[in-house]
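#structure-requests
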Amino acid sequence: MVTRILDIDMDFFLSDIAHWVDNSERLDSEQYVPWDEERFRVFLEERCRLNKDNPIKGRVIEHHDEAFHFWKELIHRGDLQTPFVLTHIDAHSDTGLGDANYVYIMKELLHHPMNTRLRKLNIKKVNYANYLAFTLALGWVTKVEFVLHPEWDNDFLYLHLKDFSDSSGSFQFKAYNKDIDIVMQMHRLLEIKPLLVDPEIPYSLIKEDEFTSALPYDLAVFCKSPGYTPKEADYMLSIFKEYIEEI
């Protein structure tokens, strides 16, 4: 059986989405209103199929790139087999919009064979806004389910999508020659033959009110994301711990 991982960001459980933030400050809970406890528990139990009487292994983290390091840790220990199915419940896609590390992925990392990329990876390039792109580029994931916040506005980095199209339903990472200026030639990449094209990784987009996991999960991560959440939402951290065996 393929391992199923639940990857949740606390910013999903707010009335609105913050995009450009000062990470030294917490959000205003009057503008970004957290869900109440009952609604939060119902989502965990009925939508995510979590059970306090049968907790799954997991971890509560501060910033979302810690999920990448957590999975890497488990892979190194032999406690996590790849590829796994990932359910990403978040107000953001975390595929790299807002930074330029896609250039590193497309012109350096993808030049290496899949089974050597983790060893070759410049770990300093991984951050909370792009960790999912790196997770996919390393071949760790076979399918992604994005559960969407009601106010979600498509923030996929389209360069990593098949045919550069968000209607393709798949990620497909592409390596380009190092002498190509991807930033300047972004508009004509369809005309430039890539050096290498990775296998497709299908994804689905699921509205919050239409999501119910078909199967239970094997592993869970819950992220605080302090720059994107108000302190009034922190009660969710201790509640989530009731449903996991922390590792």
